[in-house]
UniProtKB/TrEMBL annotation:
Superkingdom, natural source: Eukaryota
The keyword Metal-binding is assigned to this record: no
This protein's UniProt keywords: GTPase activation, Leucine-rich repeat, Repeat
Keyword Repeat found: yes
GO cellular component: cytosol; nucleus; perinuclear region of cytoplasm
GO BP of this protein: nucleocytoplasmic transport
InterPro entries xref list: Leu-rich_rpt, LRR_dom_sf, RanGap
SMART domains to which the protein is assigned, alphabetical: LRR_RI
Molecular-function annotations in GO: GTPase activator activity; small GTPase binding
Record protein name field: Uncharacterized protein
Length: 205
């Protein structure tokens, strides 16, 4: 089909290599129709991510991007975050199950600090510890942003990370859904979150 006739492209599970991803990204750079792009379980790597980052820096239509469980490698987040820092349309970003670590989370958070459109950020099943959670908490503290969903389930943020999120939740007025199950959060972390929820009246789950 002609790309101009599509609003959603689902390439999940396809064998898309770096060359294929470059071609797709180039085609989407100036596309004004497609809003949803699913590239989960694809096989492209850092070259493909660079192409996606470049595409995000100039695409003004894409609102949903799924990059779950791709061939993630060092430098991928830097390339992606660079594009996200210039993007003005993306509302839903899934980066689950990519082995994303604390350093990646810091870079991602920095790239999203000036991205007011993003509403949903899915980071489940990664390798984010306390330092990464602290970085992500800055997204909740930034009153210029409007995140409504943050999924950190099945990471390793622990009580220290939970406490950082709790501090941010005390002043955040946009987040409605926070998923932090299976994160080795002990009593002190749970208490901090409980105290924050007495003040935060926006969070629903």
């Amino acid at each position: 089909k002609n790309a101009s006739a599509l609003t959603s492209v689902d390439l999940g599970g396809r064998e898309i290599d770096d060359g294929g991803m470059k071609t797709i990204a180039q085609g989407l750079s100036d596309n004004k129709i497609i809003t949803d792009l699913n590239l989960s379980y694809a096989s492209f790597g850092v070259v493909g991510i660079r192409a996606i980052g470049t595409m995000l820096s100039c695409n003004t239509t894409l609102t949903s991007l799924n990059l779950m469980n791709i061939d993630w490698s060092p430098h991928c987040m830097e390339l992606l975050a660079n594009g996200l820092s210039k993007n003005i349309s993306l509302e839903d970003l899934c980066l689950g199950w990519n082995g994303i670590n604390d350093a990646d989370a810091v870079v991602l958070s920095e790239g999203l600090q000036n991205n007011p459109e993003l509403k949903k950020l899915w980071l489940m099943g990664n390798s984010i510890n306390a330092e990464g959670a602290k970085a992500l908490a800055t997204l909740l503290s930034n009153d210029q942003l409007s995140l409504t969903t943050l999924d950190l389930e099945r990471n390793s943020i622990g009580s220290e990370g939970a406490q950082a999120l709790a501090v941010a939740l005390r002043t955040n007025i946009t987040l409605k859904k926070l998923c932090i199950g299976k994160n080795s959060i002990k009593a002190n972390g749970a208490i901090a979150l409980g105290d924050a929820l007495r003040i935060n009246h926006t969070l629903e789950a």
